[in-house]
Amino acid sequence: MTTFASGTDTLTRDALTVLQPGFTGTTAPDWLLRRLGEGLASVGLFGRNIASPGQLAALTAQLRAERDDVLVAIDEEGGDVTRLEVGSGSSFPGNHALGAVDDAELTRAVACELGRRLAECGVNLNWAPSADVNSNPANPVIGVRSFGADTDLVARHTAAYVTGLQSAGVAACTKHFPGHGDTAVDSHHALPRIDAPAQVLHRRELAPFRAAIAAGTRAMMSAHILVPALDPDRPATLSRRVLTELLRGDLGYDGLIVTDGMEMRAISGTYGIERGSVLAIAAGADAICVGGGLADDETVRRLRDALVTAVRSGELAEERLAEAAGRVRALARWTATVGGEGAAARPAPGADIGLLAARRALTVTGAEGFTPLTEPPYVAALTPVANIAVGDDTPWGVAAELVRMLPGTQTGSVAGETAGRAVLEAAGARRIVAVVRDEHRHPWMAGALDVILAQRPDTVVVEMGLPGAAPRGALHIATHGAARVCGRAAAEVIAGR
What we know:
By secondary structure, the protein is an alpha/beta fold.
């Protein structure tokens, strides 16, 4: 059974219980194991913590040797945002690809298989799916992480994803409440604002979260966004109106509420992580996610002490902290019960469901006049700056697959105003495959394609982001995401495999 360090009072244990910290390294540091003994109930994992499935399983076993009911959380959306396969790219297409197929049963099956793999490695809480309606195509942080721009589509696929993931014994954490899709600012960098009226928000943003609640999502993640129609003063993560009155009251949600990362500038740059954590728990959050950037014992101590001090000063009700800690423990009990019966013991599906889904997600324009390539091309990746959620450690594109299918394929990565001319010079006489990501959001990228296609109209264009620009090129393939399997599916079309 779980034990706590002697002399640790209930208040301090509760303050530790509501934290979901991260750490560095591929084994658990001594300070983290000590905190688990003192009451810490959750740990967040990131790409830096994962080298292989076997190593991850050993790490989670190490954590459970200290606390058998620990919640082990991860940000594994599949698609562009992967931690399990950070070094190779995901075996599963992301939300936008699944939305493009629009087969809810496929989405459920993909989420179930992803959950099965997580469960095999000892992970029992996934900060996914994104239920954001991507109503603003210029959104710099959501994009292909969303199932799409249609509310009903996003709602049915959110529900299917929650059902599939939890059937594998892994708790879903639907995000980013009340909806991050209509923003033009990344909350990793600043505080976004959504000025839509309340009736639009209820009809558009909130519908997928209602569907997630109906599907039984065990956790919900708040967004660091200001929505004046809901609360003109505080961002959703710190707003009682949003978390308690709207999510708990109006929508009837009674599961765990987790904050998005508190070190994100939308909170840390305006309130600070200590003050922000106190306000979040007071507003109705139950768990504080921190550790993407601040991943050490000092951060845990600071947040624990801030919560204890707030209770002792009367700023934070002790009953509210105890209620939050109780919800964390309740979720831990659910994962311990359901996880033991879940899909970790089920056989994997016979076919590679991720690749099958990626193939179905392709939108191909110009195929009727296209002859597959038989000679090795020059693959030019027109590479934008990656958003923080995706990161720049995960490879993307079609080059690796085309090198395998067409040995001798050459590749290069370019960016900026001279990118088009650089590609033409590097390609020489080779056929060009130009790979882009969100062409519609990057004028330099569109300009580069103009230059390339003016000289080389036989260029193949592969769009691996949100397909917001009109298709062009001798062949245009929209993959609806940059997962490894999306690159393979596109390469198969190019090489006629």
